[in-house]
Amino acid sequence: MEPKWLDWAKQLQSIAQTGLTYSKDVYDLERFELIRNISVDILAHHTAMDRPVIKDLFAGETGYATPKVDIRAVIFKDDKILMVRENTDGNWALPGGWADIGHTPSEVAVKEVKEESGFNVKPIRVLAVTDKKCHPHPPSAFHVYKIFIQCEIIGGQPAIGIETSEVKFFAENELPPLSTARNTKTQIEMAFKYLKNPHEAVYFD
By the 8 A CB rule, do 32 and 15 touch? Predict the structure, then answer.
């Protein structure tokens, strides 16, 4: 579970963002801006991020506050799972990224796999819908839902993308260092569980 200070900061940010969106009274708007600043102060105090960076991150969010959605593609070949090495941290992750406006979750999975690994895939089924706060990811400023979609390779060749430096398949007992902001060891193990038990029910938090 995420630390309590992070939960408080995100709840305050959510209240502030929604209030700034719907309030008309100038005094209420000032109060909601103050609440947003308190949430920024909490994050700045507990992390290595600069306060202006955090404020810009939050100030870019408008409208009713809702969780962000991260899509991850689960692809097997010869009982091994497809992973890509991320340029940002040099570690490995399932192909995927933020959901795009105007795209369905399955369309995002197809697009991300192509961009990050070079493969053309066909989505088969949803394996899991998780809440990032319930799993051992590093702390995140945003509340994030993660959707894991199993896909099947229908073409293409391994190829790195703008955000990736290597493409490789791994057996369950030879997993590489993971990019834990994107996926955890238990989530990869869960993916292999579905490989072994195709009729396993969808997992959700």
Answer: yes
